[in-house]
Amino acid sequence: MTILDKIIAQKRKELVELINLPLLKEVEKPVPTFKEQVASSSNMSIIAEIKRASPSKGAIDLTVDPIEQAKTYEGNGAAAISVLTDETFFNGSLNDLHAVRKAVDLPVLCKDFIIDTLQIDHARAAGATIILLIVAALDDEKLKELYDYATNLGLEVLVEVHDEVEMERALAIQPEIIGINNRNLKTFEVNLATTEKLASYITNPNTILISESGMRVRQDVERVGKVGAEAILVGETLMRSDDLNATFSEMQIPLSKGSEQHAR
Ligand SMILES: O=C(O)c1ccccc1NCC(=O)[C@H](O)[C@H](O)COP(=O)(O)O
User: Which GO terms label this protein's molecular function in UniProt (predicted)?
Assistant: First the structure.
C-alpha cells in the first residue's frame, strides 16, 4: 500500500465523521482570484504553504502560528496561501485554514485529499477559494464531478498531475489551473524534471501551470519558469526559512510572459 493509498483510505473513514460535523462560519471578506493574482504579476507567483509536518519529512514546524506565518507570506508578496488541512498525516486542520482566510487578503488553497463533495463544502465554509483535486486519487468520473461541483460554487480548482497519463486525464476536463507535482506521492521522490517533461502538454495559453514541490533555490525556480510555469507551490523551504524576505526575493524571478523564452 502506498502512502497515497493510506491517506485516501483514511479520508474515506473521516467522511463518516464529516457528515455530522457542522460547517465553519463562512468568511464574507472578498479576495482576488488566483487567476487575477497571476495575471497582475510579471514575476513568478508564489503559493506559500503552511506545512507543519509531512509523511516524507515528519515534523517541519509543529509550533507554527498559521496566522503569523500567513501574514508574513502576504507581506512578502505571496500570490496565495496554501494550507494543508489534513490532520492525520500533516498535522493541519480546517481551523488553520479558517484562521488564515480571516487574517489575509489573498486567495487561499485548501491543500487536502478531496474525494467527496462534502469535503468541498467544508473547505469552502472554512474559507478556501481554491481546492485541490489530485488526479491520482480519483477516477475520471469523480474528477469531473468534483471539478464541476467546485467551479459551480465559485471556487477555483487546482488539478494536480504527476505523469503523462494523469496529464491527459486532467486535460480532458479543460481545467484553468494545472499543477505538476514534482513529488511522486507514492514513493516521495522529488524531481523537477517532472515539470520539464510534462509542461509541453499544456498548449492552451490561458491555462496556468503551477510547478509544485521541491523548490529550494533560485535555480530551481528558473528551471520550471523556462518551461512555462507561472507559479510555484512552496512548502518546506518557506517553513524552514530564517529569512523569509530573502527567500521570497530569491524565488520571485521575473517572467517574460508571452515571449518565446517563456513559451511551453
Ligand atoms: O510532502 C509530502 O511528504 C507529501 C506526501 C504525500 C502526499 C503529499 C505530500 N505533500 C503535499 C505537497 O504536494 C507539498 O506539500 C507541496 O507541493 C509543497 O512541497 P514542498 O515545497 O516540497 O514542501
Answer: indole-3-glycerol-phosphate synthase activity
Residue 256: which pLDDT band, with cuts at 50, 70 and 90?
A: confident
Which ligand 1 atom minimizes the distance to the CA of 179? Answer: 17
> 129 CB less than 6 Å from ligand 1?
no
Residue of 14, 74, 156, 212 marked active site: 212
Q: Is the CB of 185 under 6 A from ligand 1?
A: yes
Is the pLDDT at 263 greater than 60, yes or no? no
3-state secondary structure of 28: coil
Q: Which cell is 93 given?
A: 486542520
For ligand 1, whether the C-beta of 213 sits within 6 Å is: yes
The pairing of strands 53-54 and 58-59 is antiparallel
230 CA to centre of ligand 1 in angstroms: 19
CA of 259 to the centre of ligand 1 (A): 31
**What single DSSP character describes residue 262?**
G
Strand partners, 47: 80, 233
- The CA distance from 68 to 187, in Å, is 32
Topology (CATH) of 3-17+38-255: TIM Barrel (3.20.20)
Q: Which of 118, 54, 115 is nearest to 82 (CA)?
A: 54
Could you read off the pLDDT of 182-222 as tens digits, one per residue? 999 989 999 999 999 999 999 999 999 999 999 999 999 99
